[in-house]
Design goal:
The chain is of the alpha/beta class and about 625 residues long. Helices cover about 50% and strands about 20% of the residues. The chain has 20 helices and 17 strands. It has helices at about 1-25, 30-35, 40-45, 50-70, 75-120, 140-145, 150, 165-175, 220-270, 280-305, 315-330, 355-370, 415-420, 440-450, 505-515, 525-530, 550-560, 575-580, 600-610, 615-620; strands at about 125-130, 135, 180-185, 190-205, 210-220, 310-315, 335-340, 350, 375-385, 400-410, 455-460, 465-470, 495-500, 520-525, 540-545, 570, 590-595. The N and C termini lie far apart (about 115 Å).
Length: about 625
């Protein structure tokens, strides 16, 4: 800019000088003097008012000297030309001043715009219509890793833009479209970015597009957060669905347990009494077998509902894997290979041994059924550290050290819509005669009850991988194996009050107790039971936990107020853990879970009646 201004001033001074020389040497002096006005006019382009005034003054001085030397002051035309030069010089000074002001404002605007571009948090990149970078602000350096020297002059394709995308962006700029385009880009170090690109066209003085200005905003972290939130939301919804199904399963199991108590025990009565001969006895045995299978089914439902208690202990998972190979390999057939890889160090987990066996068996049998044409099942165990990030298991696990069990197959795999429901009870893709749909639901219940999580990855035609995480146990727990219960001796008229709202169960319990020497009084609800204490004493109270009008714990509390020290045995189709979680009972109570056999009920009552009475109760007796 300074060079251009200096050149214009030099040219304007030269023009005045040349016009003066011409005025002295040429006959047409008036015309030559008039040419001196060209100097101030040329100097206007310098946008320097003082310099323009100096050129104008030079022209006036030179004109005056020539007019004086040549005796032209008497000529009217020359006097007018001198006045014209003076006026035009003043006008040029004014024009130069206006131009100077305009250029200063433009320079300030450019400086302001440059600072905005440099200070913008968004990457601002200008490029030619062919996609070559012409501008690169510091935010672009930070976003993409390239310095301005590395980027300017290079094709924008080095950022991951395709040729079609460059054409599209140029087309948007021509149509003055400022649409935001979400697309992928690549950092200098190779990692991928998700960016939002806003496009604007840069026009020349003729209104023609000559460059494209694009503003890039990094959406990678935002999209990653949104994806994580969607994942957490989906997992939360699935966890809520499974929890709801668990409550439903627990309720169904409770009702079934009441019915099974009746079926099991009355079938035992019929078998013991030798009812029927030949095929009748076989029929009763089949009924008993079916009832046992139904009892197992209810226990699986309760395991899924995480309300079936187990005998948890510290176990080395390597031992389970070692035993499983010999146990399960014959069940797989020659067309399926089982590869088991154990860890070098002990893998201690706090869980029920039988249930862990059940988990492994269910997963391997499922893998076998997914490979009708044969394949490989891989079982691998080890340890892993879990951080704060979601890892694709249900339910979510806390950060810490975990034992990891991975079971993979090369079977048919599952579509995503199938994999989303596999842990739900009674959901199965197998034929009706080949599965109940409780295998994986049971696995889910066992793993979640142990404080762990389970996840699945599957691809149709490739195979399925289950990943189980179980918290690391600190040390081996001492095993406390109780002796198997035996039928106690016949009672001698001890009086038992039975409180049960289900008539079938109530009649069953009364029959069991009476046939084994107990005196029994029965009541269908709490208020009726409490009336009996007005004129009778009892040796034991046997009551259901959840009943209409008055729950069992309230009946027991009021009964013990009337008869202090009275032993109480609760019975319920719900488990002790579930009842405790719902604050129906305390942990110290005596509870027998339905369905129970006659031997189990008689054993529990006998132990309660023969146990030493508490000191407070002895004193009150």
């Amino acid at each position: 800019m300074r060079t251009t201004s200096g050149t214009l001033l030099a040219v304007s001074v030269l023009a005045v000088t040349v016009a003066g020389v011409v005025a002295v040497t040429m006959p047409a002096k008036t015309l030559a003097i008039g040419m001196m006005v060209i100097g101030p006019c040329l100097a206007v382009g310098s946008a320097k008012p003082r310099a323009v005034a100096a050129v104008g003054a030079y022209a006036l001085v030179l004109t005056t000297w020539i007019a004086t030397a040549k005796g032209l002051w008497t000529a009217t035309v020359e006097s007018r030309l001198l006045l014209l030069i003076l006026c035009i010089s003043g006008l040029c000074v004014a024009l130069a001043y206006n131009r100077q002001v305009a250029e200063e404002q433009a320079a300030k605007s450019r400086a302001r715009l440059l600072e905005i571009v440099r200070g913008s948090r968004a990457a601002i990149i200008t490029s030619s219509l062919r996609g070559y970078i012409t501008g690169w602000n510091p935010a672009a350096e930070q976003m993409y890793g390239y310095t301005a020297q590395e980027a300017i002059g290079k094709s924008i394709m080095m950022l991951g833009a395709s040729r079609d995308e460059i054409t599209l962006i140029a087309g948007l700029a021509r149509r003055h479209r400022l649409d935001e385009l979400e697309t992928g880009r690549v950092h200098k170090d190779g990692h991928k970015l998700t960016v939002s690109v806003s496009v604007a066209g840069l026009l020349d003085r003729n209104g023609d597009l000559f460059e494209v200005c694009s503003t890039h905003r990094d959406l990678t972290a935002k999209r990653s957060m949104e994806a994580r939130e969607r994942l957490l939301s989906d997992r939360s919804a699935q966890a809520e669905r499974l929890e709801s199904l668990g409550r439903l399963a627990g309720g169904v199991a409770h009702d079934f347990n009441n019915l099974l108590s009746i079926i099991l025990n009355y079938t035992d009565f019929a078998i013991e009494q030798g009812a029927g001969v030949g095929t009748a006895q076989d029929d009763l045995a089949r009924v008993r077998g079916a009832a046992d299978r139904a009892r197992t089914l209810c226990r699986q439902l309760l395991i899924f509902a995480r309300s079936e208690p187990g005998n948890a202990e510290a176990i080395d998972l390597n031992l389970i894997l070692a035993d499983s190979r010999d146990l399960l390999a014959p069940m797989l057939g020659e067309h399926i290979e089982l590869a088991v890889r154990r860890a070098q160090l002990p893998l201690l987990v706090h869980a029920d041994r039988t249930r862990l066996d059940q988990v492994l068996m269910n997963l391997i049998i499922n893998a076998r059924d997914a490979m009708p044409q044969g394949g490989t099942i891989s079982v691998e165990a080890g340890t892993t550290e879990i951080g704060e990030e979601p890892i694709g298991v249900h339910p979510e696990v806390r950060p810490g050290s975990y034992v990891e069990l991975v079971v993979s197959d090369t079977g048919t795999g599952m579509a995503p819509e199938v994999a989303a429901h596999i842990f739900e009870p009674f959901f199965t893709t197998k034929a009706k005669d080949r599965g109940t749909g409780l295998g994986l639901a049971t696995v889910y219940g066992i793993v979640s009850e142990a404080g762990g999580g389970i996840g699945v990855e599957s691809e149709v035609g490739v195979g399925t991988t289950f990943r189980l995480l179980l918290p690391v146990a600190a040390e081996h727990a001492e095993q406390d194996r109780g002796a198997a219960p035996v039928r106690p001796p016949v009672a001698h008229g001890q009086h038992v009050l039975v409180v049960e709202d289900e008539e079938g169960v109530r009649d069953l319990v009364v029959r069991i107790l009476k046939e084994h020497g107990y005196a029994v009084t029965a009541a269908g609800d709490g208020p009726s039971a409490l009336e009996q204490f007005e004129h009778k004493r009892f040796d034991l109270l046997l009551t259901d936990v959840i009943m209409p009008n008055m729950p069992g714990p309230t009946v027991a509390r009021l009964a013990q107020q009337s008869q202090p020290g009275l032993p109480v045995l609760f019975m319920s189709g719900y488990t002790e853990r579930l009842l405790g979680a719902q604050q129906f009972i305390d942990q110290e109570i005596e509870l027998i879970e339905k369905p129970f056999s006659a031997d189990e009920l008689l054993d529990r009552i006998h132990r309660l009646l023969t146990a030493p009475a508490p000191e407070t109760a002895r004193g009150q007796r």
